[in-house]
Amino acid sequence: MQLYHRGWFVKSKALEANLSDTRVDVSVDVKYRVLLDIFDGYVGILNRMEIFLKELSHPYRNWSFIVNEARHFSLHYFYLYRSHEKGMNALSIYSDIFLSAFEQSVTKSVRTAASDNLMLFFFIWSKNRPTG
């Protein structure tokens, strides 16, 4: 496999071995199905959601990507969760995602982003919960 580095293509057997070791078929974990259900009919959003959920279901997670996407989906589409019958389930899933990122990532910046986003998410949730 060739790797582009500083203007040169370098043949890397180590990269090739690493990629083959980490290549796995990934299917979305059933516990995230509710998120797909909520975005059913929103084709553009659904495609991005599927990529996010596959990364979340992968055994070798990219926590930085997951935290960024969780922030995007949890905050940008909050209005959809409020009006959907399974919305509370979705909100609980996002809480779990941020907590998992905080607990499992070894990168300080990812843990910081996960905790900051969890607090922002809870703040938005508390300000927009249904009354009555």
How do the helices and strands line up, and which of them pair or pack?
Elements: E1 2-5, E2 8-11, H1 13-22, H2 33-38, H3 43-57, H4 63-76, H5 78-83, H6 87-104, H7 108-127
Antiparallel strand pairs: 1-2
Q: Round the Cα radius of gyration to an integer and report it.
A: 18 Å
Distance between the termini: 60 Å
Q: Unreliable segments (pLDDT under 50, ≥5 consecutive)?
A: none
Helical proportion, percent range: 55-70%
The major beta sheet can be summarized as: 2 strands, antiparallel
Strand order of the largest sheet: 1-2
Shape: globular
Kindly estimate the percentage of residues that lie in beta strands according to DSSP: 5-15%
Given the structure, what is the number of helices?
7
Write a brief caption for the model.
This protein is 67% helix and 6% strand. It has 132 residues and is mainly α.
Give a verbal description of the structure.
The longest helix has 20 residues, at 108-127. Strands 1-2 form a two-stranded antiparallel ribbon. The model has no long low-confidence stretch (mean pLDDT 85). With 132 residues, the protein is mainly alpha-helical. It has 7 helices and 2 strands. The protein has helices at 13-22, 33-38, 43-57, 63-76, 78-83, 87-104, 108-127, and strands spanning 2-5, 8-11.
Characteristic terms for this protein:
mainly alpha; 6% strand; 67% helix
